[in-house]
Amino acid sequence: GKAAPSSSFFVARIEWFSTMSSGGRISRKVKQGKIEIDFEESALLVNYELEMVQCDDNGMVLGVLERKPDVRRIKINTLSADKNMAQLASNIIDKCKYIHPSRVEEVEQLLIKLRKHAMANERQVDDSSAGGSTDRIRENKERDREERDRKRSSDAAPNRQGIAQNNGRDDHRSSAAAPAPRPVVDPLPPAYMNNLDDYLEMLYQVSGKSEKEREEGLKLQERGTGMILKLCRDVMNLEQLIQNGTVMGALTRVLQEEFKKSVELTFNILRIFLAFSNFMEMHPLMANYKIGVLTMKAVDFELKRAEVREAERVARETELQTELEAAKQDMGTYPQVLDQVRRKREKENQKHKTTLRKQDKLLFVGLYILLNLAEDLAVERKMVIRSLIPSLVTTLTRRFDDLLILVVTFLKKLCIVGENKEAMKRLGVVEILNRFVPCSSQPLIMISLRLLFNLSFDKDMREQMLKGGMVPKLVNLLKTPSFRPKTLRLLYHLSSDDRCKSMITYTEGIPILMGLVINFPQDYLPKELAALVVNVSFNPRNCELMLNNKGLNLLMDRLADKRDPLLVKIVRNLSMWTFNQQEELESPELQYKYRGLWSPHIKVFMEIIMEEDKHDLLIEVFGTLANMTIYDLPASSNWSKLLREYSLLNLFCKMLVPGMAQNDLLLEIVMLVSTIASDLQACNLIASSTLIGQLYQLWEEKGDDTELLLQLIHCFHKLFMHDGSREEAMYSTRIVVDIIDCLNHRNAGVRAKAAIMCDLVLEFDRDATGELGNLGKKILQKQFEAHNKVWLGALQEEYASHGYNSNMIGGSMMGNGNSGGEYYADSRLESSEWNMSSQHLQQQQQGQGQYSQQQHYNDDDGGSVDNGHEGHWGGGGSVTGHNGNSGRYK
C-alpha cells in the first residue's frame, strides 16, 4: 500500500550549501533507517547510517568524509500483558538517540507485535499442559487484566499521527515546541479480534430519553470505538476490519448520527478511518461508505462550532470587563469583584485551552484523512467543489503546529491547479503565511517556504509577498543553512521585480549573498544562488555594494581558480554597470571614479579565452570584455597592444569560420570587435587582417538573425569612423549595398541603424570635388523610393494602363505642372547616374521655366530639371517643385 505521510519515515538530511568559510571541525550526522524486530532475542534492531562530515566554526557542512552503516540493538526485558506500550515506546525513544521522536507510533506498533509473539508462545506452552481448558484460562486472564486496568494509571505518550516532512526535522527540539509527555490514564484494556462482536455491540447502544441515559450511551460508543481503534494499531488487522461490512456500516452510521454530540466519539472514528486511508488500496472501499463526505461534514461542523465558541468567549469577556468597570464606581466592593473576575477568567481560559486542544486533534485527523484520499485527483476535485480551500485557509489561523504543517502541506498540493491558486489568492493565503516566516517551528517554516515558492510563479502573489514585507524576513532566513535552498529560490522569483532588488539593498542581503558566492565549497555555483545574484546586480546600488571590501577581487580570484560560467555572469553584470557609469558621465576621463578597477583582471579574461573551449564560459567572458573601455584597461596598455600580445585577431578569425561557433558566441565576438574598433591603432590592425572580410561573410550567412544583424551594422559603423578601416570596409565588400536593403527591414531598430549608416556613407563617399560616388547615389535612389513609395506605386499603375514601361524603378518622376512643375528622370537601379528625360520635358513642360545646370531653385510658375543636371541629394543639390516650398529627399 501507499506509505502514509508520517514522520516515522523521517530521514536526516544535510543541506548542500551550508558553508561560509573553509576549515573547521569534524562532526557526526545520523541518517535513520528501518527499525526491525528480533523475535528470538526479544529486541528491536535500529538501523542507521553514521556520516562523518567536516564543518566550519559556524556549524556549516564542508563535505562528507565517511559513511558507516550500523545497527543498535535494544533489548526488551518485560512484555507483560498489563505493560503500557505507549509509555514503553516513549521511554525507548528518550534513551536512544538514534530514533527520532516522531517515530513513537512506529515503535509502539513493533512492541505490540513483539508482545503478541511472546504471548502466543506462552499460550502454546499452556495448551500443552492444560489441554482443553485454554478458552477458560484465556477468559480468566482477560477478566483479571481488565480489573487491573481499571485501577492502573500510567504515563502515555501523546498519540499523534505524524505528517510527511520531506526535509526532516532537527533532532534537538525546544521545550515549547515539544513539551514533555503528561501522565494520563488509559481506561481501555488490550483489544483482540476475537472480541470484535462485543465491541460492535457497544456501538449499537441506543441512547435513552434522559440526559443520564444519553451520556451512558455515548460513553459505551466511545469505549467501543476506542477498542476498535486499538485493533487498528496492528496493521495486520486493517484488511480484515475494512472488509467487514458490519464494522464499516456501524462506524459510518455512528459518525453520521453522532458527530455533533461527542468530540471524543468523532475523534475515535476518524482515527480508525485514518488508519485505513494510509493505504491507497483501501481508498475504493472507503469511497463505498462515503467516508470522505462524512469527514468533510465533521471538519466543517467543528470549524463552525469553533467560530461560535470564539464569539461566545469574546462576549463573556466583554461582560466581565463591563462588570469590572461597573465595580470601579464602588471602591469598597471593587477588590472582591476583581478577584471574582480573575477567577472566572482563569477558569474560562483553562476551559478554552482544553476545548482548543480537542478541536485541533480532531481537525488534524480529519484533514489528514482528506489529504490521503486526495491522492485521487477526481476525489480532490470533489473536495474543492465542497469548499475545501476556504476550510483550510480558516484552519491556518489556529496555533497547533502539527495541524498547521498538515494544512500548509495540503494547500501546497492543491496550489498546482490554477483554479485552486486563484482561490487562495482571493482568500489572502500569502498574508496568513507571512506570520509563519519565521516562527518557532522549523518544519512549519520549511513547508511554508515551499508553498510560497509554488505561489510565487503568479505575479499577483509576488506582489502580495512584497507588500507584506517578506523580503527582509527571507534575507534573515539565509543565515540558517537548512532554509537556504528554498529561500534562494523564492527570493529569485521575487527579484524579477525591481522593488525587490531595492529592498535587498537595505538589508544584509548583499553581504550574505557575496559570502555564499565567494565561499561556496563546490567548483560551480548552484543555479538558484547565481541567478539571484545576477538579478540583484541589475540594481546600480547593489553593484556598488558588491564592489565594497574588495568584492570584485574576491570574485575574480574564484573565477581564475574555478572557471565557473555562472560566476562570469555575475562579473559581466558588474562590468555592464561600470560601462553605464562611463556612458552617463560628460568627461569620463576626469569623473570616472572606478578607473583601474578592472585593469588587474584583464589578464585573467585573456587567459580564459585563449585556454578554454567551454561555450557558455566563452560567451560570458567575451561579453564582459565587450563592456571594457580604454579607462578599464591597464594604464600602460590599449586594445592594439592586447591584439598583438594575445593574437586576438587570429582567434577572432578562427571563431568566425563557418561552423566553428554558435550564434550567441558569434554575437559576443562581434560586440567585442565593435569595442576594439574604438581604438584608431586597433582599427589599422583590423584593416590589415582578413577580419573585415570574415565579418561580411558572417553577415551573408547569418543575416536572418536580427540581433546579430544589428550588432554587425554597429560594428561596421565603428569601422567606418576611422580612415584606416573605412576604405577596406566600405569598398572591399558589398556591405553598403546590403545596408541599403536594410532600409526596408521588418525590424524598426535595424531600419534606424541602417539609416544612420547611409548618412555616414553619404558624408564620406565623395570625390575630390565633393561629388557623390556611386554608393551615395544608390543610397539617394533608395531613400527617394522609400519616401515616395505610394506615389511611385500609383505611377506604375498608370504606366501599365497606358502601355508604358511598367518598371517602377525605370519609370519617371512626375509632379503636377500646374502647381509645382513636373519632373521626369530615368532612374534605373543598374545605372550609376540619374538621367533626366528631355523628351518628357518637352511634352509636359512647354511654356514653363526650367532648371539649368547652374540654377538649383526656381520660384517662378514651375520648374523642371535640365537634361544634363544632376542634383546632389543629401549633398550639394536638391530637387524641388514650386508650391511655395522646396523639398529635400533623404
From TrEMBL:
<dbReference type="InterPro" id="IPR000225">
    <property type="entry name" value="Armadillo"/>
</dbReference>
<feature type="compositionally biased region" description="Pro residues">
    <location>
        <begin position="180"/>
        <end position="189"/>
    </location>
</feature>
<feature type="coiled-coil region">
    <location>
        <begin position="301"/>
        <end position="358"/>
    </location>
</feature>
<keyword id="KW-0175">Coiled coil</keyword>
<dbReference type="GO" id="GO:0044782">
    <property type="term" value="P:cilium organization"/>
</dbReference>
<dbReference type="InterPro" id="IPR016024">
    <property type="entry name" value="ARM-type_fold"/>
</dbReference>
<dbReference type="GO" id="GO:0007018">
    <property type="term" value="P:microtubule-based movement"/>
</dbReference>
<feature type="compositionally biased region" description="Low complexity">
    <location>
        <begin position="838"/>
        <end position="856"/>
    </location>
</feature>
<dbReference type="GO" id="GO:0016939">
    <property type="term" value="C:kinesin II complex"/>
</dbReference>
<dbReference type="GO" id="GO:0005930">
    <property type="term" value="C:axoneme"/>
</dbReference>
<protein>
    <recommendedName>
        <fullName>Kinesin-associated protein 3</fullName>
    </recommendedName>
</protein>
<dbReference type="GO" id="GO:0019894">
    <property type="term" value="F:kinesin binding"/>
</dbReference>
<dbReference type="GO" id="GO:0035869">
    <property type="term" value="C:ciliary transition zone"/>
</dbReference>
<dbReference type="InterPro" id="IPR011989">
    <property type="entry name" value="ARM-like"/>
</dbReference>
<feature type="compositionally biased region" description="Low complexity">
    <location>
        <begin position="880"/>
        <end position="890"/>
    </location>
</feature>
<feature type="compositionally biased region" description="Basic and acidic residues">
    <location>
        <begin position="135"/>
        <end position="154"/>
    </location>
</feature>
<dbReference type="Pfam" id="PF05804">
    <property type="entry name" value="KAP"/>
</dbReference>
<feature type="region of interest" description="Disordered">
    <location>
        <begin position="121"/>
        <end position="189"/>
    </location>
</feature>
<dbReference type="InterPro" id="IPR008658">
    <property type="entry name" value="KAP3"/>
</dbReference>
<feature type="repeat" description="ARM">
    <location>
        <begin position="469"/>
        <end position="509"/>
    </location>
</feature>
<feature type="region of interest" description="Disordered">
    <location>
        <begin position="834"/>
        <end position="890"/>
    </location>
</feature>
